[in-house]
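Same chain as my last thread, 255 residues:
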Amino acid sequence: ELVEQVYNNAMDSLSEEDRKLPQIEAMLPMLKRGVGIHHGGLLPILKEVIEILFQESLIKCLFATETFSIGINMPAKTVVFTSCRKYDGKAFRWVSSGEYIQMSGRAGRRGKDDRGVVIQMLEEKMDPEVSKNLVYGKPDPLVSSYHVSHNMLLNMLRVEGTDPEFILRSSFFQFQQEQKVPELETQAADVEAEHAALEIPGEPELSEYYMLCRQLERTRAEMMAVVRQPQHCLSFLQPGRVVRIKEPEVEGGGG
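reply #2:
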């Protein structure tokens, strides 16, 4: 069969030991029956083969996680939600509106289906408000995670004619930051106006007291720097003495 031929050709690139892995041996019988699975725990080559077979309509029923429907453009005739809750790494929560729209939007193949079918299986009670937000809620906002690293800059400088500043200015991340400028300017103006409107009774005296405290701290630091010099403190470090050790943000004691 075509499915077996495609599968075996792909698995030929693996070593003899890898071909005996349980998931490699168990996958082919299912694929020959038109049933496939797709999740992050599969080997990359297995996922690639399943995507190819599904795209060529050689898989009729595919059990997949949301990664398949969100990260890959693989439309299907029917999309079935076996559950509307998911584990996000911390707790189980309802699927967000953006996730639901993205996954359900895979239903309906362009040029083949007049309409797509979405089946939602409810295994527990769902409040009307949750259902409404699921179907009619706003999509998740797009937030750029683009950042410039030292490695990226070095690679760009190796290419002649590359302008790192132009690439950064043209990025979606920079666009989002520039969109926030008016709001940040308004916030800064509000803070400055609030600061100008502040009236502190006895402000000159408080300012003088603050400067004296700062000077006292500097003087104490200078004194301790002299006291801690070896020629001044070694004579006190004798057996039986208790030493108190203090570090920034950490305090400990030893004897």
